[in-house]
Write a structure and sequence with these properties.
406 residues, alpha/beta, TIM Barrel, 14 helices, 44% helix, globular, binds 2,5-dideoxy-2,5-imino-D-glucitol, binds manganese (II) ion
Amino acid sequence: MPKYSIDEFTPKKEDRFTFGLWTVGNRGRDPFGDVVRDAISPTTIVKRLSELGAYGVNLHDNDLGPIDATQAEHNKILGEFKKALNDYGMKVPMTTVSLFYHPVFRDGAFTSSDARIRAYAIQKTLHAIDLGVELGSEIFVLWGGREGIEVDAGKDAMEALKWYREAVNYLTSYVTDRKLNMKFALEAKPNEPRGDIYLPTTGHMLAFIETLDHPEIVGVNPEVAHEHMSGLNFYHSIAQSIDAGKLFHIDLNDQKPGRYDQDLRFGSENIKPMFFLVKLLEESGYSGPLHFDAHAYRSEDEEGVWDFALGCMRSYNILKSKAKSFANDAEVKEILAVLAKAGGNDEFSLDRYSSVGATKLKDHNFDIEHLAKRGYGYERLDQLLFEHLIGVRSGFAVAKQMVAAK
Ligand code: DIG
Ligand code: MN
Ligand code: MN
């Protein structure tokens, strides 16, 4: 049995780490190979994640049991799940709905050209919202994995966006009408499984939200791999989401550039980008769940799955510690202070327009040759960051004790 060290990076419930049932429950199927792992029951997932220090689990409506389960079967499975949550002190901060797995959604759910399928998709989501309320979720994620096309000839993009808006408006009206304590987090992805997915990035979602009837209860659920698939800087996507007051949830994982959606263990590929992400989340005071929408390599057995889960959480905590040591580094602080001072003061009051100010600005004579000459010290600053991340500038706490995995 692998031994897990207990040290300052060991996850604790107050870290707010969560996993979808479908993440650690991923059985390793891929487009070119069958499952490699046995199914892990929801109650076992709750138990093992709790023992590793996780705060909660998330689920799609169909994760607890088959889509054609009878009401009696569904109630039995739900009862066992709720008992496990209670026994192991685990929460369900987020619920979502599968509008992508069943063949009925082969050409979209909210954006299907068939009005009956659009209606079924909304009905399925209403029931999933009710399930989430029953489990105590306050966040409902909508990922439109099938809302897209392979060929544009078959669907008017303007019409598709109208249908998308109709569906989200219907759902927010339901929550408002029934006075449910639930807000929505829209998750973007550029492609896969569709050739092109509508609203492909978090930026598109932020713009879309402003066109809705109840934008105040709609935010975003950005995922690392999905923005990286578009070659975007995830830290910047999160900064814009926080700036807009719309970071309602987040899907943490990792991704090699230019690949399909790999949903890799958090921190396993892009240490520096994930450093800035964690630094922002912690320094901004983000208080939502830290959800890992990722899964173990197909090479792993069940023990490897739990190594994966612990690795996600430990990596976040290690980067959190690195962010603190970097921010407290005297030389880093000195370089940043010089940068701030060299930037001069805002003598033109650029943060508040005035007619007098505009005249003063227009008449000012800037010495741009002089301004063009200054250097910025980024090389030294980035080298210091590298040395923090590599560990030569501050070692990790030595593992205090080794204990057998429970
Ligand atoms: C894929 O990134 C999607 C689905 O796993 C789920 O609907 C959503 C919730 O995190 N992410
Ligand atoms: Mn993904
Ligand atoms: Mn996701």
